[in-house]
Write a structure and sequence with these properties.
alpha/beta, Rossmann fold, six-stranded mixed sheet, 12 strands, 47% helix
């Protein structure tokens, strides 16, 4: 990649002259301007305004890195975090986790990370950062991997998976459902916690969780759809599905549509985790979810404490909220 130094050498002028030409901070003679313009074209030089800003900026910047996902969940959490940082006059730059990893490996992007006041990482085990301890040693960091609730607790966040599962199954039972299917996603720590809570609640409520209706998938929406369809085609079907993530519930909705199964007329669906897309699907999705505003408040308070060099005993116990929409119907007695 050509640099301003390369342009100056080829044009036979000083770096300062090229800078004046690029930034229009001082008049440059027409012949000199022509030589600089020709050198820029020949070298295919591109001024990196963002890099220049990072080099001189005095305002602190928080990097917020997220994993790619088939729902808006990480974007929703990021937006809530960014709003709270803005209230504290802190600037946020969102990047993908893969971009953050490239920054940490050096090269052209490394200078960006050197300007950071802190880093927030939101994601799951697919594409997670490679060296958590190294990042935490380099910068004030909050690292939330949704596949590892034990690590949540290390970051001061307590998520009540069993309570969420119990709220979902209790809601289904109150609406007359006894035969419940599950879409779990990858069977990692989070799914294991939700599954344990689901089984406890099913036993307490006298519900039938037939193993034939428990479907493990990857995080990909297409995989959830295809496996949901295969289960629903086999029959007999449950009257309701409890999914451990909204992408899995969207997979159930599309599989049901492909098979001509009416939701919620013939199959009710409830999801753990809220995201803004649950308002846009048809029918709108009923969810139980930990509080996104609480997550955002905790992240910001923790980063600010770390930036100030304080110990962080802060613990946030996340509330669980039931959001009723249209995807669950009441069965006749």
């Amino acid at each position: 990649m050509a640099t301003i130094k390369d342009v100056a050498a080829l044009a036979g002028v000083s770096i300062a002259t090229v800078s004046h030409y690029l930034n229009k901070t001082k008049a440059v003679s027409t012949p000199t301007a022509e030589r600089i313009g020709k050198a820029i074209a020949e070298l295919d030089y591109r001024k990196d305004s963002l890099a220049a800003w990072f080099k001189t900026a005095e305002v602190p910047v928080i990097f917020l890195a997220t994993a790619p996902a088939d729902t808006s969940f990480f974007d929703d959490v990021s937006a809530a975090i960014e709003e709270r940082f803005a209230d504290r006059d802190l600037n946020v730059l969102r990047v993908q986790i893969a971009t953050l990893e490239r920054m940490r490996q050096g090269g052209a992007l490394a200078s960006f990370l050197q300007r950071a006041a802190g880093v927030v990482v939101l994601g799951h085990s697919d594409g997670w950062i490679t060296d958590e301890a190294g990042l935490a040693a380099q910068l004030p960091s909050v690292l939330l991997n949704w596949d590892r609730p034990a690590d949540f607790r290390k970051q001061g966040v307590v998520e009540h998976l069993e309570r969420g599962a119990d709220m979902a199954l209790t809601y289904l039972a109150e609406h007359g459902h006894r035969d419940i299917g599950l879409m779990t996603g990858p069977m990692l720590q989070r799914a294991q916690g939700l599954l344990a809570g689901t089984r406890q609640s099913a036993e307490r409520l006298g519900l039938n969780i037939d193993p034939r209706w428990t479907v493990e998938t990857s995080y990909a929406f297409g995989d959830a759809r295809d496996k949901a369809r295969a289960m629903l085609e086999r029959g007999p079907r449950p009257t309701a599905m409890f999914t451990f993530g909204t992408q899995f519930s969207f997979g159930v909705l599309q599989a049901a549509y492909q098979l001509g199964i009416d939701v919620p007329g013939e199959l009710s669906v409830i999801s753990y985790i809220e995201c803004k897309q649950t308002e846009f699907c048809a029918p709108r999705m009923t969810t139980v979810s930990p509080s996104i505003p609480q997550v955002a408040a905790h992240v910001v308070d923790r980063i600010l404490a770390l930036m100030a060099g304080r110990n962080v005993p802060l613990v946030t116990s996340l509330g669980i909220e039931l959001i009723e929409r249209d995807s669950v119907r009441t069965l006749n007695a």
